[in-house]
Design brief:
- The complex is a heterodimer of chains A (about 400) and B (about 375).
- By secondary structure, chain A is α+β, with helices and mostly antiparallel strands.
- Chain A folds into three domains: about 110 residues, Orthogonal Bundle (Butyryl-Coa Dehydrogenase, subunit A, domain 1); about 120 residues, Butyryl-CoA Dehydrogenase, subunit A, domain 2; about 140 residues, Butyryl-CoA Dehydrogenase, subunit A, domain 3 (Up-down Bundle), CATH 1.20.140.
- Chain A has eleven helices and ten strands.
- In chain A, the strands form three sheets. A four-stranded mixed β-sheet of chain A has the order 1-4-5-8.
- Chain A is globular, with a radius of gyration of 22 Å.
- By secondary structure, chain B is α+β, with helices and mostly antiparallel strands.
- Chain B folds into three domains: about 110 residues, Acyl-CoA dehydrogenase/oxidase, N-terminal domain (Butyryl-Coa Dehydrogenase, subunit A, domain 1, Orthogonal Bundle), CATH 1.10.540.10; about 100 residues, Butyryl-CoA Dehydrogenase, subunit A, domain 2 (Beta Barrel); about 140 residues, Butyryl-CoA Dehydrogenase, subunit A, domain 3 (Up-down Bundle), CATH 1.20.140.10.
- Classes of the chains: A alpha+beta (about 400), B alpha+beta (about 375).
- The interface between A and B is large, with 49 and 48 residues.
Chain lengths: ~400, ~375
């Protein structure tokens, strides 16, 4: 046992802190940005380029691809410090497309995309879910039919960020409809910008943001954009990649929310009594602080396992379930603590903490559904982790 | 950084499992629930031979001189196998009090005998008020010349009925923390004890002190400074209990998963139903969390780092988590799980006892509330 993570890269932590506080164009203490929404995506992207110039975005990549081969723990420190300040630094390009291309991409694909991912020049949108294929992702129906040097793609992809300044989509498409469902899928990269046959709609979410619904109507995607073997796309997308997937950003964001709520409780009264003196609130907020700490340890464990070349499987799912559900409880408690004020939208002059808690609570339901619902994660824990029989 | 066990700890864990599975099967646990002493001297001798009683005692006093975090590994397995008897009270409560507060003479006198398994010890801290704070200590020790007179009642004293010595926490002054510790032979005149019947079938007693005379040499550490040691012992005790609970939780999870694979209803193993799978996944999450939050606090205590925050968080978390794990274990086992014959009930009864020992969740959450600035 050695839990000395405060001691890891202490200089690096302060370097990040100094840089962010000097360079960040928005006030992270008062503003929450949603990089998957159009109103914030340009601002986030521009700042990410600065992080790219520092070499930080892809520090965990191998040197041959322009990375620094930094350890997982260093990457975790970076993600934690960024997330604490409300910045999602590791996007899908850095965490998924890049590593997938390193494993399965052609030389041409690597040359074309990796440097641009590293410098945050490409904004990626994920094309996995479809209106009729959510948890049962392998049932996806977006077709890609071979035609000369191209695939002709038709279908819909949903819950993505295509509407938010996205340039490319990495997507799973069906190339062999008669094969068993997992074996007829391919992984392709599709340019969205100026693409004929692509329609992007915005779906308003219950929080202050949108997600994208993209319809492909006979869209031509060059075959050179196929990643990995044709019909092996499911395995390309699901490969247990060595990218940092501790989810440490959740407890890091939650830590800041906790700090905000503690301050709020010290400054505000209910029924003539300071909230911080209310035994029920003390108990409930302390309980969430413990849950956030436990989440953080689980995240560090996932990263630590990766640094030891162990594959976190059950552990990553446990961390995801527990982390997303903890964050949801924390925001829910925050709204409750604020009493009647908790219901106010961010633009109300009366909204405490600029309505961030209310909006974040609404948004936190997304965490428990995106990238494998809590139920799917529990299935993974039970079936892969505990080896219980499949139903 | 290393969130897991090091090589030596892994070896300790494996040898503990080998030893306990052979020497402490559930049949032994059940026998000891009914036994007058609650343990057998034969097994106590074997435990001493393993070097476990002296695991963290310095070599100069006949111990192995490992660290608290190593003891935690051992306690985890003891929780898993539900080892009955006075190990915890002797090593964590009595032994560590002496290691912390004892003078050279006292260490020479008691520690080698603890390590060799010659004496059994306990801590007499709580009273009928059932408080864990300094004002809860009302038993008085009055100085008269070169001796003290003890008067008062201690309640929930672990294994007092078989202990040779008790570390007695007594009030020696009027301000809140004027508290001192005394090593008192359990057979002293004026001590009267009565066994309590408890949920975990462990052995706790009411111990009444009526004009009990102890020499000044029985004072452990400095007069009126005893509470400083007790605060540390409470932390070691809380994390020791967390370790036992973490090991017990792992066993309940393993038992439940095994049962879910074997038990057939509606023509298929119940473990193939999502309802049961999700119960098991939730149990695995609680077991995983228990381990890390316990290890973190244990490590900090071992390193002598400030650990108030981590200890409070661990005891608050693990107390609840173990209760949840047992509840889901029961639910997944159905009716068989709450029969006397089944081992589930052995664990859930112990989970409840551990939950309230050294501060329950609410006690520790209040500490956390203070520490996070509320």
């Amino acid at each position: 046992m050695d839990f000395k993570f405060e001691g890891i890269d202490e200089d690096f932590r302060s370097e990040i802190k100094d840089f962010v506080e000097k360079e960040l164009p928005w006030n992270w203490r008062e503003q929450d940005l949603d990089p998957e929404d159009e109103k914030d995506s340009v601002l986030v992207r521009n700042f990410k380029r600065k992080l790219g110039d520092q070499g930080w975005l892809t520090m965990a990549w191998p040197k041959e691809y322009g990375g620094q081969a930094a350890s997982h723990m260093r990457q975790v420190v970076f993600n934690e410090e960024m997330a604490y300040r409300g910045i999602s630094a590791g996007d899908a390009g850095i965490r998924m497309v890049g590593p997938i291309l390193m494993l399965y991409g052609t030389d041409e694909q690597k040359e074309q995309f990796l440097p641009k991912i590293a410098s945050a020049e490409i904004n990626w949108s994920q094309g996995y879910s479809e209106p009729d294929s959510g948890s049962d992702l392998a049932s996806l129906q977006t077709r890609a039919v071979e035609d000369g040097d191209d695939f002709v793609v038709s279908g819909s992809k949903i819950w993505n960020s295509a509407h938010a300044d996205s340039d490319w989509m990495f997507m799973l498409v069906r190339t062999e409809p008669d094969a068993p469902k997992h074996r007829g899928i391919s992984f392709v990269l599709t340019e969205l910008e100026g693409q004929e046959g692509v329609t992007i709609e915005k779906i308003p979410m219950m929080w202050d943001a949108y997600r994208g619904l993209v319809t492909f109507d006979n869209v031509r995607v060059p075959k050179k954009n196929l990643v990995g073997e044709q019909n092996r796309g499911w395995y390309v997308g699901a490969a247990l990649l060595d990218f940092e997937r501790s989810g440490v950003d959740r407890p890091a964001r939650a830590k800041r929310v906790l700090e905000d709520l503690v301050e709020f409780c010290k400054e505000n009264k209910k029924n003539g009594r300071l909230l911080a003196d209310d035994p029920v609130i003390r108990n409930q907020l302390a309980e969430l602080a413990v849950q956030v700490e436990t989440t953080r340890l689980m995240c560090y464990n996932v990263a630590w396992m990766q640094s030891q070349d162990l594959i976190p499987n059950k552990e990553a799912s446990i961390t995801k379930v527990y982390g997303t559900e903890t964050v949801n409880r924390l925001y829910g408690l925050g709204v409750k603590i604020m009493g009647l004020y908790g219901q106010l939208d961010p633009d109300s002059k009366w909204a405490p903490l600029k309505g961030r808690i209310e909006n974040a609570w609404l948004r936190s339901f997304g965490g428990m559904v995106a990238a494998g619902t809590s139920e799917i994660q529990r299935n993974v824990i039970a079936q892969r982790g505990l080896e219980l029989p499949r139903g | 950084m290393d969130l897991g066990l090091n090589e030596a700890q892994q070896m300790l864990k494996t040898s503990a499992q080998d030893f306990l599975s052979a020497e402490c099967p559930d049949t032994y646990v059940r026998e000891m629930e009914e036994d007058e002493r609650g343990y057998t001297p034969e097994l106590w001798t074997k435990i001493a031979e393993q070097g476990w009683l002296g695991l963290i005692i310095p070599e100069q006093y006949g111990g192995v001189e490992l660290e608290f975090q190593d003891l935690v590994v051992l306690l985890e397995e003891m929780g898993r196998y539900m080892l009955p008897g006075p190990f915890f009270s002797t090593v964590v409560l009595g032994g560590m009090s002496i290691m912390d507060a004892g003078n050279e003479e006292q260490k020479q006198e008691y520690l080698p005998r603890i390590a060799e398994g010659q004496i059994i010890m306990t801590l007499a801290l709580t009273e009928p008020s059932a408080r864990w704070d300094a004002p809860g200590v009302e038993l008085t020790a009055t100085a008269n010349g070169d001796s003290y007179t003890l008067n008062g009642t201690k309640l929930f004293v672990q294994n007092a009925h078989v202990s040779d010595y008790m570390v007695v926490v007594a009030r020696t002054g009027s301000s809140e923390k004027d508290i001192s510790l005394f090593v008192v032979p359990t057979q002293s005149d004026g001590i009267n004890q009565t066994l309590l019947k408890t949920i975990a079938s462990d052995r706790q007693s009411e111990v009444v002190f009526s004009d009990v005379q102890v020499p000044s040499s029985a004072l452990l550490g400095v007069e009126n400074k005893g509470w400083e040691t007790i605060q540390k012992v409470m932390q070691w005790g809380a994390i020791g209990k967390c370790a036992e609970m973490s090991g017990g939780g792992q066993q309940v999870l393993d038992m439940t998963v095994d049962y879910a694979k074997q038990r057939t209803q509606f023509g298929r193993p119940i473990g193939s139903f999502q309802a049961i799978q999700h119960h098991c996944a939730n149990m695995a999450t609680d077991v995983e969390g228990s381990k890390f939050i316990t290890y973190q606090a244990a490590w900090r205590l071992s390193e002598g780092l400030p650990a108030d925050r981590e200890v409070a968080m661990a005891k608050a978390w693990v107390s609840d988590a173990y209760r949840r794990v047992c509840a889901l274990g029961h639910q997944s086992h159905g009716a068989i799980g709450f029969t006397k014959e089944h081992n589930m009930q052995l664990y859930s009864r112990r989970a409840k006892a551990s939950e309230i020992m050294f501060g329950d969740t609410d006690f520790h959450l209040e500490n956390v509330a203070n520490i996070i600035g509320l």
